[in-house]
Amino acid sequence: MSGGVRLAGTAEFAAADAPLDESKAQTMLEHAKVMLGETPHITSTWVGSRPSTPDSLPVIGPLKRYPQISLGFGHGHLGLTFGAVTGQLISCAIQGEPGGVDLEAFAPERFS
Fold first, then answer.
1. So where are the chain's domains?
2. Which of 14, 57, 80, 84 could cysteine-pair with 18, CB 3.0–4.6 Å?
3. What is the 3 state secondary structure string of the chain?
4. How far is CA 34 from CA 5, 30, 53, in A?
């Protein structure tokens, strides 16, 4: 972040290709003005899709039909937070070791 401060923090239910809602960016800018004591210079705005699962739980574990393939995704805004734990759980599952967590609730096939 040597080039400045990044403002982020909104989420909404919208189509994957929905355009940026400028009013949300303006709201964040107004809050930044209060916190920083000055009007920040905006260099760019961005919006992107962050798909989520219907039950809000991540998908973690091997595919039953193709057990050589393991999945670990769907952490929403907590991907960096839970990425290492998910990697450890998948590693244990691949090696047939207990990982300390029953992965059934996170099974990829739970939606079929």
1. 1-49, 59-111
2. 14
3. CCCCCCCCCCCCCCCCCCCCCHHHHHHHHHHHHHHHCCCCCCCCCCCCCCCCCCCCCCEEEECCCCCCCEEEECCHHHHHHHHHHHHHHHHHHHHCCCCCCCHHHHCHHHHC
4. 14, 7, 36
Integer Cα distance of 60 and 64 in angstroms: 12
Indicate yes or no: pTM above 0.90: no
List pLDDT tens digits, range 10-69.
777 888 888 888 888 888 889 989 998 888 888 888 887 777 888 999 999 999 999 999
Q: How far apart are the first and last CA of the chain?
A: 42
